Amino acid sequence: MDNQELMSFFREASSGVDRAMRADLASVESSLLGEVLFYGIFNGGKRIRPQLTLICAALVAGDRGSNRQGILDLAIVFEYLHAASLLHDDVIDHAEQRRGKKTANSIWGISPVILAGDYLLSRAMSLACAVGGGEAMALVGRATEAMVEAEFLQARTAEEKNYSEKNYYKIVAGKTGALIAAACEAGVYIAAGSQEQRAAIKLYGENLGLAFQIVDDILDYQGDPVRTGKAVGNDLVEGKMTLPLIHALRSAGSEDLAVLEEVLAADAGEKKDRFPEVKTLIDKYDGFGSARREAGELVATGLTGLHCFGEGRELQILRGLAAYVLSRDK
Fold it and tell me: How many CA atoms lie within 13 A of 327 on its CB side?
């Protein structure tokens, strides 16, 4: 399945996810809360996470069974969690734009946006429990805990200037991999998949999330702002460690290493001004190429366990998504 066919599938399927979320949020009584929620949720995005839940459920059960509404309700849990994390991230980062549009916090301020994110987290927990009981709620809880822990670890990493690859992967596994893995595993769980199938799809989701973030790291340096919807260099300016930079720091000669460390110790304004210099040094030491190869290895490992599922369209979609993650430009 090529990227064009894959994205066409996700665009068409996302309409059902959107309808389910709109129906679910129709009961929100506060007009301000509803306004913030709708802006945060329906402001773009491919609905990859909830669709992974739907795809992974179909991977096990196909179109059989009468619990389609329950599966859909469980799927939107993961879009709520994702949207909540974005709302909270933009507050933490004092961000003014996301996907080329104003952030919710730049329109309504901090308090309403934090509360809207809290509402989505609570609603996600309620839905997960109602549909999948304690096991589904535990999946959601573990993913949420990992995301929060990763935020704290990322802040500490920036403060301590910890440039280790091991630390980087702990952060990415929590911030990105955990939620994608939970979305995948929830689909297999709700369709009564085996423990072997749950373990295989969890590994796929974890590695897909890691690879997605690595490519995101690369795009923060090499991406086209028109395509990505955000300016290049944000991670460097904010002091976030990315895999291409970590690889460059590990391989750089003493003079170039001193330059990189000097930039990393500088204030945000100087980091922004010296971004082209850092980009050149990362390229010199193959930081972008080695990071991309590492992403490819992660995806390949994640795909290895999927043999426990029967061949079919859903498996083609998962393989296609893995290829898309590696080749995406936005």
Answer: 11
Q: What is the mean pLDDT of residues 93-118?
A: 92
Cβ atoms of 149 and 174 within 8 Å: the answer is yes
Cβ atoms of residues 67 and 128 within 8 Å: no
Domains, the chain, with CATH or none: 3-327 (1.10.600.10)
Higher pLDDT, 46 or 296: 296
Instruction: Enter the tokens of residue 17.
Output: 């996810």
Tell me the three state secondary structure of residue 46.
Answer: coil
Q: What's the confidence (pLDDT) of residue 102?
A: 92
Q: Which of 172, 169, 210, 184 is nearest to 78 (CA)?
A: 184
Tell me the angle at which helices 287-304 and 243-251 cross, rounded to the nearest 10 degrees.
120
Summarize pLDDT for 21-68 with one digit per residue, the tens.
Answer: 999 999 999 999 999 999 999 987 889 999 999 999 999 987 655 578
The b/e string for 24-39 (b: 16+ C-beta within 10 A; e otherwise) is: ebeebeeeeebbbbeb
Phi-psi domain of 109 (left: phi exceeds 0; alpha: psi -120 through 50; beta: other): left
Retrieve residue 126's tokens.
């309620």
Question: What's the whole-model pTM score?
Answer: 0.93
Say how many C-beta atoms besides its own lie within 10 A of residue 166's C-beta. 7
Q: Report the run of H or E that residue 288 belongs to, with start and end.
A: helix 287-304
